Amino acid sequence: MKTVTAFTFGIIISLLFAFNSSQDKDNSLGRVQKMTGKYVFMYCEPTNDYDVAFEIKSPAVVWKSPDATPDGIANFVVKRAMKISEEDNKDFDGVVIGSGKIDIAIKFK
Fold first, then answer.
1. Which of 45, 56, 70, 84 is deepest in the core (most CB within 10 A)?
2. How many C-beta atoms lie closer than 10 Å to residue 32's C-beta?
3. Residues 6 or more apart from 51 whose CB is under 8 A from it?
4. Contact of 44 with 70, CB cutoff 8 Å
5. Quick one: which of 60, 42, 37, 21 has its CA closest to 98?
6. Under a CB-based contact definition with an 8 Å cutoff, are residues 82 and 36 in contact?
7. How far apart are CA 19 and CA 40, in angstroms?
8. Structural domain that includes position 52
9. Contact, 94 vs 38, CB < 8 A?
10. 3-state class of 78 per DSSP?
11. pLDDT by residue, tens only, the chain of 109 residues
12. Is residue 62 part of a domain?
């Protein structure tokens, strides 16, 4: 009787652990691509800690042009960030692109 009870208890505990591990899975995590060696976070945010290296102002015409595809916008923002980085001697690891007129260049901690 003790072995049956212990066996049943073991199965219940195993099922609880299996159920809890599937509940804790974070499906919002993903990977981003790089452009010119820089990470591009478009409509998302890095999970690692970072500092804002500098702001990147994008004219509204960029969003309204025929090249306003996700790749076109990302390419424009990365090129602009590279230019600012060279002019101001500021290093950055990637860019965070939102839906506004100001995007940011980031440096991971």
1. 56
2. 14
3. 106, 107, 109
4. no
5. 42
6. yes
7. 35
8. 34-108
9. yes
10. helix
11. 566 565 565 566 665 565 555 566 777 888 899 999 999 999 899 999 999 999 998 776 666 777 678 888 889 899 999 999 999 999 999 999 987 778 999 999 9
12. yes
Domain tally, the chain? 1
* pLDDT score recorded for residue 9: 59
Length of the chain: 109
Q: Which residues does 79 contact at the CB level (< 8 Å), separation at least 6?
A: 36
Distances from the Cα of 1 to the Cα of 6, 11, 93, 100, angstroms: 9, 16, 63, 68
Measured over the CA atoms of residue 32, residue 35, residue 38 and residue 44, the dihedral's sign is negative
The angle at the Cα of 54, spanning 49 to 60, to the nearest 5 degrees, equals 115
Please name the residues in contact with 46: beta carbons below 8 A apart, sequence gap of 6 or more: 39, 94, 96, 106, 108
Residue 96 has which token pair? 């965070």
Classify residue 87: in a domain, yes or no: yes
Answering whether pTM is above 0.90, one says no
The residue behind tokens 């015409």 is 61
